[in-house]
Design brief:
about 500 residues; alpha+beta; 7-stranded mixed β-sheet; 6-stranded mixed β-sheet; 16 helices; about 25% strand; binds adenosine-5'-diphosphate
């Protein structure tokens, strides 16, 4: 038996999972790490601490699985995207804390670029919209912040990369400075049509080329983990950004197949194959993956800021539940929201609205409204936001999706999934293994190491645990959507200065 080790480096924790060659998970280990909030709107991670959690969870998972590390055929990496690390090539030490995707410190810098008319260029090259979310402005900021940053970068003294690069460098003892196309496509520095760093974008963000990693495929030989990691050298044959990994783990490998991850936020991706479709509805075009020497493959992506986080607000902000799963019993104690609508625009609205000034709104309350109605409206609010993304995606692709494949922590809620099916008028499929992110990385790693010959060998691994079919008539579905749209209008542009 051969084994695969998936390293899943997330925003709040790192997790390692050992899979056997049938992709059955044998053992896992997970560790949280520190979130640093040095100022409002700033979010940082200590890259050394991230690496430490990756290393120790990997060692623990292998020990728990009770396998000999020499039987691990391949390591696969998946990671929080956009977060950027800069380190000294000679010492391997980070020169600044990692700036996390959620960090908004470069908002003004990006607004100035937008006002300077740079968005069309950036969108046509990268598929992205000018927003501090992506790595480029964060990297620009670090180079200005540290002494002689730009000069040291130009002289090749510094190395930078997203978290996959940082992990590859540490795994290989500094031998490999590389990234994969899916992660590189989120930096705003790669031309997604060629898969290479774009000189014009490097000039725009003032990033010296010697700073950047080499861009490689998602699957294939990417480097070798040193013996210091698990006691023996192990090939690294997979690396992929977390959302693309979940798309692959859900086997959305035919154009038109869609997955939605319900975590803190919700991430909807539709695979579009070798066509990089430019969204007309303000969704993002992104590289899905490149397998070995194959062509670049693409996806359209839309995300919701407040997914499971809305449920956390019921727990921590309102205090009407003690734990996230309690939302389900409370919401199910009423037949519907009693006309209450929650627009969870607590941090503004993302795609397709992109309204940073929108704020949360709770509408339609009467004397009869209870905590249960609000809980129900919260689940509805998550489903409505995802429905808006699906609608935008269908407009872009011109085709109606046949089913939504779901994963992530909040997809455990049967009520949320049924509500989603009802609001979409489309079946929702929940797989047996909802750990799609780690699974995708393991699949990339196994394919890259030749554990399986091709994708066909993998088509067997996906099994649906439950399929939620729409139970609402089209008429009442439309009425609910209309009410939601009216509520969104009330929540929009609340902070009028933004
Ligand atoms: P992330 O990877 O973003 O940290 P997860 O995929 O672990 O998120 O999902 C966590 C989210 O799922 C939390 O926001 C929580 O509110 C929600 N959640 C977890 N379990 C349930 C449940 N049984 N019902 C509803 N929501 C849940």
């Amino acid at each position: 038996m051969k084994y695969i080790l998936a390293l899943d480096q997330g925003t709040t924790s790192s997790r390692s999972i050992v899979y056997d060659e049938n992709l059955k998970p044998l053992a896992s280990s997970q560790k949280e790490f520190t979130q640093h909030f040095p100022e409002p709107g700033r979010v940082e991670h200590d890259a050394a601490e991230i690496w430490e959690t990756v290393r120790t969870t990997a060692q623990e998972a292998v020990a728990k699985a009770g396998i000999d590390a020499r039987s691990i055929a391949s390591i696969g990496i998946t990671n929080q995207r956009e977060t950027v690390v800069v380190w000294d090539r000679r010492t391997g030490e980070p020169v600044h804390r990692a700036i996390v995707w959620q960090d908004r410190r470069t908002a003004d810098y990006m607004s100035a670029l937008r006002e300077g008319g740079k968005e069309p260029l950036v969108q046509s090259r990268t598929g992205l919209l000018l927003d501090p979310y992506f790595s480029a402005s964060k990297l620009h900021w670090i180079l200005r912040e540290i002494p002689n940053g730009r000069e040291r970068a130009a002289a090749g003294e510094l190395a930078a990369g997203t978290v996959d690069s940082w992990m590859l460098s540490n795994l290989t003892g500094g031998k490999t400075h590389a990234t994969d196309v899916s992660n590189a496509s989120r930096t705003m520095l790669m031309n997604i049509h060629t898969g290479a760093w774009d000189p014009e974008l490097l000039a725009l963000f003032d990033i010296p080329a010697p700073l950047l990693p080499q861009i490689g495929p998602n699957s294939g030989p990417l480097g070798t983990a040193e013996a210091g990691f698990l006691g023996t050298e192990i090939p690294i044959c997979g690396a992929v950004g977390d959302q693309q990994s979940a798309l692959f783990g859900q086997l959305c490998t035919k154009p038109g197949l869609v997955k939605c991850t319900y975590g803190t936020g919700c991430f909807l991706l539709v695979f579009t194959g070798p066509d990089a479709v430019t969204s007309k509805n303000r969704l993002l075009t992104t590289v899905a993956w490149k397998i070995g020497g194959g062509p670049l493959q693409y996806a359209i992506e839309g995300s919701v800021f407040m997914g499971g986080a809305s449920i956390q607000w019921l727990r921590d902000g309102l205090g009407i539940i003690r734990s996230a799963p309690e939302v389900n019993a409370l919401a199910a104690s009423v037949g519907d929201s009693g006309g209450v609508v929650l627009v969870p625009a607590f941090t503004g609205l993302g795609a397709p609205y992109w309204d940073a000034g929108a704020r949360g709104a709770l509408l339609g309350m009467t004397r009869g409204t209870t905590a249960a109605h609000i809980a129900r409206a919260t689940l509805d609010g998550i489903a409505f936001q995802v429905a808006d993304l699906v609608e935008a995606m269908q407009k872009d692709s011109g085709a109606k999706i046949s089913a939504l494949r779901v994963d992530g922590g909040a997809c455990a809620s049967d009520l949320l999934m049924q509500t989603q099916a009802d609001i979409l008028g489309t079946p929702v499929e929940r797989p047996t293994n909802i750990e799609s992110t780690a699974l995708g990385a393991a699949m990339m790693a196994g394919l890259g190491a030749g554990v399986w010959r091709d994708m066909d060998a993998l088509s067997e691994i996906r099994s649906v645990e439950r399929r939620f079919t729409p139970e609402t008539a089209a008429k009442s579905r439309k009425a609910r959507l209309k009410l939601w749209k009216r509520a969104v209008k009330r929540a929009q542009k609340w902070e009028i200065s933004k």
